[in-house]
C-alpha cells in the first residue's frame, strides 16, 4: 500500500472508516467525555482528522498540521474535554485506520510500505503535539 492507495481508502470509505472508531470512543473509559456526543458529531470530528491526514500525505505541510492541531486543542479545552481523552481519541483513530485497511484485504501493518507507516505516524505525532500545545495555551489563559 502506498499513500495514494491510503488516500483512496480514506476518501472512498470515509463513513465506515470513521464509524469503525465509534465503539472504542463510546466504551473506552479513557474517552468518557466522547460518550455523550452524537454519532454525527463523532463522524464530523473523525472525518476532519482523516481529511487532515489526506492533506498531510499530499502536501507535507507541517504548518497546516500545526495550525489545525492547535485549533483542535483550543476547541477541546473550551468543550471541557480532558487533554488525555483528546490524545487517546487521536491514538484510537490511527489504530482504527490500520485495522480498517487490513479488513479490506490490504497488506498487514508489517507489510505496509515503510515510508507510508512513517508518514502516518509523523502526522499523528505532529497532531498530538500541536493539539497539546493549543490545549495548554488555552489552559494558561484561563
The N- and C-terminal alpha carbons lie at a distance of 45 Å
For the sheet with most strands, the description reads: none
Strand content: under 5%
User: What would you report as the Rg, rounded to the nearest angstrom?
Assistant: 15 Å
Please provide a written account of the structure:
- Helices cover 79% and strands 0% of the residues.
- It contains six helices and no strands.
- The protein has helices at 3-12, 14-27, 39-59, 62-79, 83-103, 114-141.
- Helix 4 crosses helix 6.
- The mean pLDDT is 93.
SSE layout:
Layout: H1 3-12, H2 14-27, H3 39-59, H4 62-79, H5 83-103, H6 114-141
In short:
The protein is mostly helical and 142 residues long.
List keywords for this structure.
142 residues; mainly alpha; 0% strand
Amino acid at each position: 500500500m502506498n499513500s495514494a492507495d491510503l488516500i483512496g481508502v480514506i476518501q472512498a470509505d470515509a463513513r465506515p472508516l470513521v464509524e469503525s472508531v465509534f465503539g472504542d470512543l463510546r466504551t473506552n473509559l479513557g474517552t468518557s467525555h466522547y460518550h455523550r456526543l452524537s454519532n454525527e458529531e463523532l463522524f464530523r470530528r473523525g472525518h476532519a482528522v482523516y481529511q487532515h491526514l489526506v492533506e498531510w500525505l499530499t502536501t507535507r505541510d507541517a504548518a497546516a498540521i500545526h495550525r489545525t492541531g492547535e485549533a483542535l486543542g483550543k476547541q477541546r479545552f473550551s468543550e471541557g474535554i480532558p487533554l488525555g481523552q483528546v490524545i487517546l481519541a487521536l491514538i484510537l483513530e490511527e489504530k482504527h485506520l490500520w485495522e480498517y485497511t487490513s479488513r479490506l484485504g490490504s497488506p498487514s501493518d508489517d507489510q505496509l510500505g515503510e515510508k507510508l507507516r512513517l508518514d502516518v505516524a509523523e502526522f499523528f505525532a505532529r497532531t498530538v503535539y500541536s493539539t497539546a500545545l493549543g490545549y495548554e495555551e488555552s489552559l494558561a489563559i484561563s
